[in-house]
Amino acid sequence: MNRPVQPPASAYFITPEKEANEARTLAIIVDNEPGVLARVIGLFSGRGYNIESLTVSETEHEKHLSRITVVTRGAPHVIEQLKSQLDRIVPVHRVVDLTRVAGEDGESAPIERELAIVKVAGKGEGRVEALRLADVFRAKVIDSSIEHFVFEITGRPSKIDKFVAIMEPLGLVEVCRTGVAALSRGKAGM
């Protein structure tokens, strides 16, 4: 009786376990100089990872430091590799993963906010409904005419997603989003 040949016990035949992709929010403190953003973002594109949100602004004018906040999605071990590679870029001062599992080490999820400007066109009953829903979401009217409204809304990205989805059947015309700004909770800073 012929038995099937088993492959030899080798590391090459061990199938790696698939880690679930997780959303991660990274804060990166860098020198505010030309080319730094391109180098930081190049690491993500070089590894084939998409950036879901990106915000950049100078935060310490006297020291010429900027803060880059990146929301990306990936396997935990790959995100750790990205963080260590980011730490090695010369103009990068600190890299902090703001994403924490609630309750882990006494920490909780970071405070994340986003700003969106949403234009909705409509007349009659749809117009009244758009105003009513904007009030529920605490969106402010920042421009209006007889045929449109422009709303300003801030909150977690999921809140903005819901607001945009609700406005779509009411005459959504255009959306502009800033990207996520995030801080860790507690008294300590970066």
Automatic annotation (TrEMBL):
Xref: SUPFAM superfamilies: ACT-like
GO terms for biological process, alphabetical: isoleucine biosynthetic process; L-valine biosynthetic process
Enzyme Commission designation: 2.2.1.6
The UniProt record lists the keyword Transferase: yes
GO molecular function, one term: acetolactate synthase activity
Keyword Transferase among UniProt keywords: yes
Annotated catalysed reactions: 2 pyruvate + H(+) = (2S)-2-acetolactate + CO2
UniProt pathway annotation: Amino-acid biosynthesis; L-valine biosynthesis; L-valine from pyruvate: step 1/4; Amino-acid biosynthesis; L-isoleucine biosynthesis; L-isoleucine from 2-oxobutanoate: step 1/4
Domain ACT: residue ranges: 25-100
InterPro entries: Acetalactate_synth_ssu, Acetolactate_synth/TF_NikR_C, Acetolactate_synth_ssu_C, ACT-like_dom_sf, ACT_dom, AHAS_ACT, AHAS_small-like_ACT
Keywords: Amino-acid biosynthesis, Branched-chain amino acid biosynthesis, Transferase
Protein origin, superkingdom: Bacteria
Cellular component GO terms, alphabetical: cytosol
Family to which the UniProt record says this protein belongs: Belongs to the acetolactate synthase small subunit family.
Subunit relationships: Dimer of large and small chains.
Database matches in NCBIfam families: acolac_sm, PRK11895.1
Record function comment: Catalyzes the conversion of 2 pyruvate molecules into acetolactate in the first common step of the biosynthetic pathway of the branched-amino acids such as leucine, isoleucine, and valine.
Protein name: Acetolactate synthase small subunit
Native source organism of the sequence: Aurantimonas marianensis
